[in-house]
Design a protein that fits this description.
365 residues, Nucleotidyltransferase, domain 5, 6-stranded mixed sheet, 5-stranded mixed sheet, 12 helices, 41% helix, binds 5'-O-[(R)-(carboxyoxy)(hydroxy)phosphoryl]adenosine, binds zinc ion
Length: 365
């Protein structure tokens, strides 16, 4: 715990408590400016595994049980108490509405009891803002590929507080394709890490998989055809051969996802000179993707910023990072503040760190 004297002596910009409950991870973090003092993540994966995907009601109930212990753990690890906290940041959307509401209500209650400001944060801005954290924070401008379970997009990040959307998936998100394909192959949930592990022993050229949007001149993505191609390959093979060739199927599928993501990054780099490229979202934890993007950046002489895997998948430190550039709401103006599950993107202008309507989060299994 810090004494008032220590607080005064420290160079801290602001001690933030951040909370993230948009999907199936209950997360809390304490940030001192761009420095992470704690980043606690309690995964509910085991609770959803039997269902093959996230069940919204189960997620919300788990967040209710876990929010307090996770926040206590984050404060404890950071060596602070709620009395030290100067603002509370929380993911307001997009995501599962029941899950989000647990985080937003918890954050409002903590903030209101101490008359602290509340900082609602957009989840996708959080994935981008993971790159602003210490050590070696990346400053804009940079090109950011965000690939998660609910979204896949290319962002032109020219300022800390927002980004311009250059392209996005027209159907499934990359992580969703990983999850559904892993399920098809009888692998565990969440599918991304399970499929990556299975693919280690496979031949990425064993099966031809479509690399969608290759001839499309834009920067949008599409993954639903790839998932369908895998369904057909499995049908052709039959259950026994599918099981026998599982590693090859996983490797071929993964190679096609990586090829599409890197093809669009390459196109964006050819269109405009960027000094740096960054990755965000759960799929950014994927080893072959990180390697392929590394090679691409080397080819183009562009700096690549890779955050640790714990900051790629959902976490609260990234929400705290985005909050540093978002607009705080003073007490009591946020008491009626609501979470948002999804919405249409604003027609023009950069997405700001302030909350606005955004595209839908991951469709549920
Ligand atoms: O960002 P995230 O934790 O949550 C959302 O905002 O959706 O991303 C979760 C997604 C899941 O679809 C998961 O399967 C995928 O990221 N993922 C991966 C890997 N680790 C997580 N996909 C591929 N390879 C991985 N190693
Ligand atoms: Zn996410």
């Amino acid at each position: 715990m810090m004494s008032a004297n220590e607080r005064e002596q420290s160079t801290r910009a602001e001690l933030l408590l951040a909370i993230e409950t948009s999907c199936d991870d209950t997360c809390a973090a304490v940030l001192d400016g761009a420095r992470i003092l704690s980043n606690v993540i309690s995964s509910q994966a085991a609770a959803h595994e039997g269902f093959g995907g996230v069940v919204p009601e189960v997620a919300a109930r788990h967040h209710l049980e876990l929010a307090t212990p996770v926040i206590d753990a984050a404060l404890g690890e950071a060596g602070v108490t709620l009395d030290d906290i100067e603002a509370v940041a929380v993911t307001a959307g997009p995501g599962l509405i029941g899950a989000l509401l647990v985080g937003v209500s918890t954050a409002k209650a903590i903030a209101a009891a101490r008359r602290l400001p509340l900082i609602p944060v957009d989840h996708l801005q959080g994935h981008v803002a993971a790159n602003f954290l210490e050590p070696e924070p990346l400053a804009p401008p940079f090109l950011c590929l965000v690939a998660s379970g609910g979204h896949t997009l290319l962002a032109a990040v020219r300022e800390h507080g927002g980004y311009e959307l250059l392209g996005q998936t027209l159907d499934d998100a990359a992580g969703e394709a990983f999850d559904k394909s892993a399920r098809l192959l009888g692998l565990g949930y969440p599918g991304g890490p399970a499929l990556e592990k299975e693919a280690e022993g496979g031949d990425p050229e064993a099966f031809e998989m479509p690399v969608a949007m290759a001839r499309d001149p834009g920067l949008d993505f599409s993954f639903s055809g790839l998932k369908t191609a895998l369904v057909y390959r499995c049908r052709e093979l039959g259950p026994e051969q599918t099981a026998a060739r599982r590693a090859d199927l996983a490797a071929s599928f993964q190679a096609a996802v990586v090829a599409q993501l890197t093809a669009k990054l390459r196109r964006a780099l050819r269109r405009n000179p960027w000094e740096a490229v960054a990755l965000g979202g759960g799929v950014a934890a994927n080893g072959p993707l990180r390697e392929a993007v590394g090679r691409l950046c080397e080819e183009h002489g562009v700096r690549l910023k890779l955050v640790p895997i714990a900051l790629c998948t959902d976490n609260a430190a990234m929400i705290g990072s985005a909050a540093r550039y978002a607009t705080p709401i003073a007490y009591p103006d946020y008491l009626g503040y609501d979470a948002f599950a999804s919405g249409e993107r604003q027609a023009d202008g950069p997405i700001s760190g302030d909350i606005g309507p955004k595209s839908a989060h991951r469709p549920l299994v």
